[in-house]
Amino acid sequence: MTELCSISDSFDILNITMNGVEHHTNGDSNGCGDIITQNQQKGCWTIGLINSKFRYLTAESFGFKINANGTSLKKKQIWTLEPDQTGAGDSLIYLRSHLDKYLAVDSFGNVTCESDVKDPGCKFQISVAEDGTGRWALRNLVRGYFLGASADKLTCTAKVPSDAEFWNVHLAARPQMNLRSVGRKRFAHLSENLDEIYVDANVPWGEDTLFTLEFRSEESGKYAVHTCNNKYLSMNGKLVDECSKDCLFTAEYHSGQLALRDRTGQYLSPIGSKAVLKTRSNTVTKDELFSLEDSLPQASFVAALNARFVSVKQGVDVTANQEEISDHETFQLEFDWSTKRWYIRTMQDRYWTLETGGGIQACGDKRSSNALFDLSWQSDGSVAFRANNGRYVITKRSGHLYATSDTVDDTCKYYFYLVNRPILVLKCEQGFVGYKSPANPKLECNKAAYESIQVERGDKGVVYFKNHNGKYWHADSECISAESDTPEGFYLELREPTRLCIKTAAGNYLVANKNGGFRVGDAALAGATQWEY
Predict the structure, then answer these.
(1) Phi, psi of 36 (to 5 degrees)
(2) Exposed (0-12), middle (13-18) or buried (19+): which is 358, by Cβ within 10 Å?
(3) How many helices, marked H, and strands, marked E, lie in the chain?
């Protein structure tokens, strides 16, 4: 029999739920966007649950049928883990399906998923197995028995959990994200020597704040922290080339926050004055808690008029006058869901703002309507900014930016580079973009595991995609494959904070087919796939 540890047994309950006073959000928080974004903003987790037969808990689209037959984490296998708000315990939760129905157990032990509201029978308590696997057991609070899977049906009849009642937890976070310490209220980033992770960044700026929390299904559902320089975090705080057992962590849930426990039972936390991320304590406090947050798009813009990068290096005036990209030429794009427009933020926490007379300055430290801009994507791959006065931003011969044009001409065009994604992971409704098979370079978009895509910058906003085989993407109306020795140009168009469209140099969009096919479509935005990245 596997011993259990109730999370609340090892943790004093703290008022740090993500929808409470301590919540920080990297952008807007009005409940818009996709399910992952919505859940982050509400302090909920987006997860998949895997049983001992390596099958996912599934809510079928018709008849509210539930089973544990899913083979990968797709829409029907997505569950929202909602914290209980009564204060009775930080391990009490509800599970909501993709159909917005709650998992429940009736007085006879029947498991259903038809309720629109959180009835008493919907509440479960998480316990973590103490056998080193980190698996979860879910005890129904009213019934007092554990949720299990048997053949095609779910059961809740076991007083003590066996293998059938233990679940691995697959976090459905975006592959690339920012890691924020709850205790320090700071973000993780690579050290200058690229051999450790420090948790002391006020703002997650640049590619060195990007991390991938890798789900290792072959390692009993544990997690590895993968950095943007292709290293893995070891429990001693050092970054190593290969993912060993010292790099594997169990995910624990604490009132909407994440704790990561190593194989010796110690938890990751920022240690010392440098806030080095490594394991030390065998109990959970604020210092051992983290939140996973969307990495907001950070971009650089080249003015078509003079081929110079837009910059704030010389002061508050936004000016196209630099030849290279630094922090002064990197801007964070923050989406306003109500207007579908963007705030453009500098490293100094100032926003591009429309001033009297039409000039654009980075002087405002507060969001206002004059700090909102439309991104108007052009057929040639460029983008135009439309300011709050309804006019387009032009580049003057001096390089200064002014919103004075009623139409888009060459002075209004800027070339866009997504600078904090040197590696892209692409996902659509069907799954991730990856190889058809290890021996076939054809790409499909229905894969359960993602393929990292290296992004190389060309001129005038063009980017080239290279896969780990060293070959570039080639695209046509039949398929897309990674088998070309010659770079082929594409444009990226940002549509939402976590979604973009990809366009060929000829102006046609890449589209995903229902069967997993991945090909070039036409030039109409209506038929374009918006890729989650």
Answers:
(1) -65, -45
(2) middle
(3) 1, 50
Q: What is the pLDDT of residues 173-227, one digit of tens each?
A: 777 899 999 999 999 999 999 999 999 999 899 889 999 888 888 888 899 999 9
In this prediction, residue 6 carries a pLDDT of 46
Query: How close are the terminal C-alpha atoms of the chain, in Å?
Result: 42
Q: Which two tokens stand for residue 94?
A: 């509800």
Q: What is the pTM of this model?
A: 0.81
Using CA atoms, how far residue 101 sits from 62, 97, 156, in Å, is: 12, 5, 18
> pLDDT, tens digit, for every residue of 104-130?
999 888 999 999 999 999 999 999 888
d(CA 251, CA 221): 9
- Collapsing DSSP states into helix, strand and coil, what is residue 393? strand
d(CA 368, CA 90) in angstroms, rounded, equals: 38
Domain ranges of the chain: 4-171, 177-294, 298-418, 423-532
Alpha-carbon gap, residue 197 to 181, rounded angstroms? 12
Fold classification of 298-418 (topology level): Trefoil (Acidic Fibroblast Growth Factor, subunit A) (2.80.10)
Alpha-carbon radius of gyration of the chain = 24
Query: CA 365 to CA 454: how far, in whole Å?
Result: 34
Using alpha carbons, list the distances in angstroms from residue 348 to 290, 312, 331, 484.
25, 10, 10, 41
- Domain 423-532 CATH assignment equals 2.30.40.10: no
Bridge partners for 333 per DSSP:
344
C-alpha distances in Å from residue 334, one per residue of 125, 177, 318, 373, 498: 37, 15, 18, 10, 11
Residue range 4-171 in CATH 1.20.1260.10? no
